[in-house]
Amino acid sequence: MAIGIDVPTPPEPDNPEDYDYEKCPFYGQLSVRGQTREGTVVSTDMAKTVIVEREYDVFVPKYDRYMKRRSRIPAHVPGVLDSLEVGDEVKIAETRPLSKTKSHVVVEILSGDQ
Fold it and tell me: What is the stated purpose of this protein (predicted)?
């Protein structure tokens, strides 16, 4: 519980001199605050960034039914959690803005798609 939420701490980085401590919630100074969300990784095309998609249901009163919606959230991947692939279930936490679109960071890999 080193970062303020109950997630396991990953092992130390392999190359400490080359590691980006500025954007790491585990071994750097990046604080997490706000909401934590769970979703599925749908894209790993960018460097140090994944797109996490989550589906949820929204009630539509006019038709008295539920409708599926989805949101896609760009999230930063710290170097210690670098082994993400498409289909992995992850937990992301809100943080300060890291770039123009990124305000979340991956804090836990819940399950892989093996």
Answer: One of the primary rRNA binding proteins, it binds specifically to the 5'-end of 16S ribosomal RNA.
Q: Partners of 100 in the beta sheet?
A: none
Q: Residue 109 forms beta bridges with which residues?
A: 90
Burial profile 64-75: b = 16 or more Cβ within 10 angstroms, e = fewer: eeeeeeeeebbb
Question: Token match 């080359």: residue?
Answer: 18
Q: Number of H helices and number of E strands within the chain?
A: 0, 5
User: Hey, what amino acid is at 21?
Assistant: Y
CA atoms of 31 and 36, how far apart (whole Å): 13
Tokens of 92: 């992301």
pTM higher than 0.70, yes or no? Answer: yes
Identify whether the C-beta of residue 26 lies closer than 8 Å to the C-beta of residue 12.
Answer: no
Helix (H) or strand (E) holding 49: strand 49-60
User: How far apart, in whole angstroms, are the C-alpha atoms of residue 103 and residue 14?
Assistant: 26
The b/e string for 83-94 (b: 16+ C-beta within 10 A; e otherwise) is: ebeeebebbbbe
